[in-house]
Amino acid sequence: MSLLRFISDTKQQQQQQQQQQQQQVSSGKETGTRRKLRTDTSMGLHATTHSMHAERARSCSSSSSSSSSSSSSNDPIEETEADQLHTHVYGDSALHPIQQLQESVLNLPEQNKQTKECLMTEQLQLLGVRWKCLLMSGWNILVAGCGSKGRLLREFASTFLSDGFCCMLNAYQREFKLHQALQAAVQVVRNHLRTHTNYSVATAAAAAAAAAAAAAQPAGGSNASCERLVKELKALLSFSYSPFYIIIIGFDSAALTDSRRHLAALASYEKVRLICSADHLLHAVLLDAAELRDFRFVFETAHTRLDYSRVQDGSGGSNSVNFEVVMRGLTTNHKRLLRCIAEMQLAQIERNESPIVSLSDLGTEASGISLSVSKLKLKELLVEVTSHGAAVQTRKNGQEAVAIRANKAQLKELLQLLEKAGI
């Protein structure tokens, strides 16, 4: 009995152990499946969360892009409204027309050349009246700003400075010499006084005084020559009722550094007015207290946005010749000779020939226009024509010749001026 009971108890224990093992295995599988389910569930949740975030990001980006596009589309309206509000509050619409035109010119791109020229024409009309008033009040003008101002000053001179002598100087030209310009100015003023009978006695006295002063002073360099010419020009202008305008393109040029004191001596004279431009291409303009007192500058601003190529190269070196001023100091015979040279030179240019006119051809052509002169008389007339720098004497094929310092377009303008003068 005891043995049978022992065997049965052992079998029961084995069965119990097997059942426990089976229960443990089943419980382990359940926990594994639960863990797997939990993992899958969490991964699904993460995936759905990620997709939800992606959809939200897409919706936000689309909404932000739509809002940005709508805001960008509304930006011009808002800016316009803001500008209108700013104008209404601060009163920008009440700015001076010159300032409005300057701002308009500055805001224009480079390709709007025609529009820019129209604006510059209006700017010249407004600035011209102001500058003319300043000159009549005894002030001189120094113009600075963005861009070349050579064309602006030339148009100002041709429009507003017809009541007196006008001398145009381009200091950016390589061949520019102040004493040569002063010599030409003295010659023009002397010839102008000589053609007026009211100034005959005064001209003789001034010429004698200038000759005596020139003989008394020893010959020197360009500075001594400038000083002597300044005194002579002042003596001649004292007998004239017309003002003498000097327009200097490039007041800050290196060519005027050593001779600026002679310009200051001229500017201090009551009948001389200066209109200068300073572009600060190489350095700034530095004036001491004495120069500021003598120049009496009013500093003006004019933005043109034009390049400096024509100013620096001088467009062939002929822009400094003002034929209107030259013609005032010439007699009728000198004007006829000048027209004859201009016609012959223009015809040679159109035939693609050299613009230099030989004196032999000039004498033949001059005899056909009721200007029958000998070779000696022709040379005397040429001295008066070439003394102001508008024409130069040279040689052609070994013979004496002459040429006007002008291109084809300027020769046509000169012929138009001579035609208006009845020559």
Automatic annotation (TrEMBL):
<keyword id="KW-0235">DNA replication</keyword>
<feature type="compositionally biased region" description="Low complexity">
    <location>
        <begin position="12"/>
        <end position="24"/>
    </location>
</feature>
<dbReference type="GO" id="GO:0003688">
    <property type="term" value="F:DNA replication origin binding"/>
</dbReference>
<comment type="subunit">
    <text>Component of the origin recognition complex (ORC).</text>
</comment>
<dbReference type="GO" id="GO:0006260">
    <property type="term" value="P:DNA replication"/>
</dbReference>
<dbReference type="InterPro" id="IPR007220">
    <property type="entry name" value="ORC2"/>
</dbReference>
<dbReference type="Pfam" id="PF04084">
    <property type="entry name" value="RecA-like_ORC2"/>
</dbReference>
<comment type="function">
    <text>Component of the origin recognition complex (ORC) that binds origins of replication. DNA-binding is ATP-dependent. ORC is required to assemble the pre-replication complex necessary to initiate DNA replication.</text>
</comment>
<dbReference type="InterPro" id="IPR056772">
    <property type="entry name" value="RecA-like_ORC2"/>
</dbReference>
<dbReference type="GO" id="GO:0005664">
    <property type="term" value="C:nuclear origin of replication recognition complex"/>
</dbReference>
<feature type="domain" description="Origin recognition complex subunit 2 RecA-like">
    <location>
        <begin position="129"/>
        <end position="300"/>
    </location>
</feature>
<feature type="compositionally biased region" description="Low complexity">
    <location>
        <begin position="59"/>
        <end position="73"/>
    </location>
</feature>
<keyword id="KW-0539">Nucleus</keyword>
<comment type="similarity">
    <text>Belongs to the ORC2 family.</text>
</comment>
<feature type="region of interest" description="Disordered">
    <location>
        <begin position="1"/>
        <end position="79"/>
    </location>
</feature>
<protein>
    <recommendedName>
        <fullName>Origin recognition complex subunit 2</fullName>
    </recommendedName>
</protein>
